[in-house]
Amino acid sequence: MRNADGRLKFIPPMMPELVDKPPEGGDWSHEVKFDGYRSQIVRDAGGVRIFTRRGLDWTAKYRDLAAAAGALDVESAIIDGEIIVLNNAGLSDFRELRKAITGRQHDLYFVAFDVLHLNGHDLRDMALDERREILAGIIPADIRIQFSQALPGEAKAIFHLVDQAGLEGMVSKRKDSKYRSGPTSNWRKIKAYTIGEFELLGIEREAGKPAFALMGEIGTRKYVGSAFINSSRAIRERLWKRVQEHAGQPPEGMKRPATQWVKPGLIGRVKHLRGEEDLRHASLQDFREE
User: What is the predicted pLDDT for the residue at 157?
Assistant: First the structure.
């Protein structure tokens, strides 16, 4: 667990499996899935370091959070969590996060949800519930490192409330799970969907395959992903007619086979997973002309 210089090593994170619905039963605990950067705080005799999900040292970008971690009443610790920034509605906001890292350090929070090492002890073979009880005991209530509380109630009801509140989703974890780096089905993430508007760049159609709408940011036409076209037959026919009427050139740098590109001016209404930089699990619901 230590480098050659005696400092604690970064531990690759345990990664939840993406599923469609939360697991039921009393063997699971549930938390809010925050819309931020998965990160790891490592504190030892040499000070505090904060690592990205892939193990890059970003301590210099998170000076205020590193200072907060230095104030914890521990000798050494490795804490797993998410770095977030809140918007005016009190929700974690991924787009604002990138701005805050460069210009608003004081607005950043570290939401801690697991502890892997504490004061010389490796805790990864302990049950999740036991690790989280320890973690809750070392985080004071008045700093920018906060404990991710478990959500009470039945999984379906929790997810409904999370969805209605506009949150990204929830994470369900087996209460007895040990901490093991890498993908696991003992932790599961369930994401909520949202509806957004994007500019239609073109339609990709190949014989025998589903049709996809290629979408971009409105105004910039920067490609953000594709959306499955599962709208009604009437909408699909109207869409294809408009695409043919508005035939145009692809955005600069884009080369896709079997794509009918369109001129600017067609705006698609897309259902997609909330909290992703690009479109994921997306479907085109309808469209309009700008």
Answer: 94
Encoded tokens for 48: 């505090």
pTM over 0.85: no
CATH number for the domain including 178?
Answer: 3.30.470.30
Q: What is the CATH number of the domain that holds 260?
A: 2.40.50.140
Q: How many Cβ atoms are within 10 Å of 137's Cβ, its own excluded?
A: 11
Residue that the structure tokens 């957004």 belong to: 196
Pick from 113-117, 119-123, 168-172, 235-239: least confident: 235-239
DSSP H helices, 82-232, are: 94-103, 128-138, 155-164
Domain count, the chain: 2
Report which of 31, 142, 166, 191 is spatially closest to residue 93, judged by C-alpha positions: 166
Sorted by sequence, the CB contacts under 8 Å of residue 117 that are 6+ apart come out as 1, 8, 11, 76, 77, 78, 123, 124
Last-in-domain residue among 142, 159, 191: 191
- Tracing tokens 């009393």 back to the chain, one arrives at 26
Confidence check: pLDDT of 33 > 70: yes
With beta carbons less than 8 A apart as the criterion, state whether 114 and 132 touch.
Answer: yes
pLDDT band at 3 (very low <50, low <70, confident <90, very high): confident
| Whether residue 251 sits in one domain with residue 184 | no
For residue 228, the one-letter residue type is F
Strand 77-85 with 193-204, pairing = unpaired
Number of continuous H segments (helices) and E segments (strands) in the chain: 5, 16
Q: Is residue 3 in some structural domain?
A: no
For residue 89, name the pLDDT band (cuts at 50, 70, 90): low
What number is the average pLDDT over the span 134-138? 97
* Contact criterion met (CB below 8 Å) for 188 and 24: no
How far apart are alpha carbons 160 and 166 in whole angstroms? 10
Same-domain pairing of 257 and 201: yes
- pLDDT for 233 equals 79
Phi, psi of 242, rounded to the nearest 5 degrees: -65, -40
